[in-house]
Amino acid sequence: MTDGTEHQTGPAAPGNAAYQQAPRFGSAPPEPDWQGMADRHQAGRRRRKRWLGASIAVVGVVAVAAGTVAVRSLSGGDPEPSALGSPTASPSTTPTSTPSTTASPTRAPVTTPTVPGKPNVLADHTGQADLPLGPDAGLKSVSGGYALSLRGDAARSYAQSDDPVVDTAAGFTVSAWVYNNAANGSRSAISAGDGASSAFDLGRDDANGRTAWVFRFRTAEVRSENAATVSAWTLLTGSYDAAAHTITLYVNGAPAGSARASGLPAGSGPLELGRSRSNAAWTAPWLGVIGHIQVWNKGLSAAEAARVKSSGGAGADAPPIASWLV
Fold first, then answer.
1. How many whole angstroms separate alpha carbon 284 and alpha carbon 287?
2. How far is CA 292 from CA 7, 15, 21, in A?
3. Could you tell me which residues are beta bridge partners of residue 240?
4. Rounded CA gap, 23 and 5, in Å?
5. Rounded to the nearest 5°, which phi and psi values hold at 39?
6. Which residue among 37, 116, 127, 241 is the one 20 to 30 A from 303 at the CA level?
7. Is pLDDT larger for residue 69 or for residue 277?
8. Do the bridges between strand 187-192 and strand 200-207 make them parallel or antiparallel, or are there none, so unpaired?
9. Cβ(88)–Cβ(99) under 8 Å?
10. Per-residue pLDDT for 264 more than 50?
11. Number of other residues whose CB lies within 10 A of the CB of residue 236
């Protein structure tokens, strides 16, 4: 990962010889060990749900053999550094508005990045909360898997759940590996809510030219101004401890700070990837890629947050309630 050129190290997209690849980034910091993280994550899931092992394997083999991972590529105006070849055209089924999620809570977890037969819907690997993609959102192959690729357009380049995934009045944690290409402006990786303003926001903040990673509630925020926020893979984890009424931001597995947060309303609205809500308008569009997204219905401890980086979250005391692109 030192020459800045692209390599096909993730799984190939069946039936798409010109599938886009994510570039290899610089050596500092290194690209996450996506394959190792995915292996450890899946190993933890197998230990908890051994009886599902056979069905998961069958789904994975059938999906790949049938070419169900017909993942949408982005063409032109690509935010990633370096040329990425000549992607195929977007499928004719690309939605003009957010489609309905049709995943069943009893569906066996899948091993593909999108729902089999639905290339425009990110598969939640727990089978609970699939995420329809906006019309200009797509996927890129990265080392060991895939990441969501977004073009910096809050109205068209995003992913959104149909129903709330977390309850901001209860403890929860959201986490993702992110790569931001925008030098300026606030950028949201994960948020919740489609009302007047987001219930929470995890991403990069730009306050009068001072950039920082941020985990923000309506009543409090935590900032980290001591880490690179452009052109560097970064693990962001935002956690809320409902008992202590405290939010904590972790950057690359290390605590960046905590703040007291009180008076939070119940419910949060749909989960959003790549944008947030302010003054009843979509804002802070993400320009870059987001991968290995996980959600827990508890506030993670510092030790658990560190294990999210070292083991992909498989070492947490409780499994994630939702995960995408893992």
1. 9
2. 19, 24, 17
3. 172, 247
4. 6
5. -60, -45
6. 127
7. 277
8. antiparallel
9. no
10. yes
11. 25
Structure tokens at 119: 């290339």
- Tokens 């809500």 locate to 277
pLDDT of residue 41: 52
Q: CA 113, 116, 117, 118: dihedral to nearest 10 degrees?
A: -40
Nearest to 293 by CA among 101, 79, 123: 123
The span from the CA of 179 to the CA of 211, in Å, is 15
Q: Which residues pair with 176 in a beta bridge?
A: 236
**Length reported for the chain:** 326
Residue with tokens 């990786």: 189
**Is 139 a residue whose pLDDT tops 70?**
yes
The residue whose two tokens read 């790949």 is 64
* Distance of alpha carbon 91 from alpha carbon 147, whole angstroms: 19
Summary count for the chain: helices (H), strands (E): 3, 19
pTM over 0.70: yes
**Dihedral angle sign, alpha carbons of residues 98, 152, 81, 292:** negative
Tokens representing 139 are: 């996927």
Whole-number Cα distances in Å, 208 to 185, 197, 211, 212, 286: 9, 21, 8, 11, 18
Q: Say if residues 63 and 125 touch (Cβ distance below 8 Å).
A: no
**Per-residue pLDDT for 246 more than 50?**
yes
The answer to whether 150 and 288 have CB atoms below 8 angstroms apart is: yes
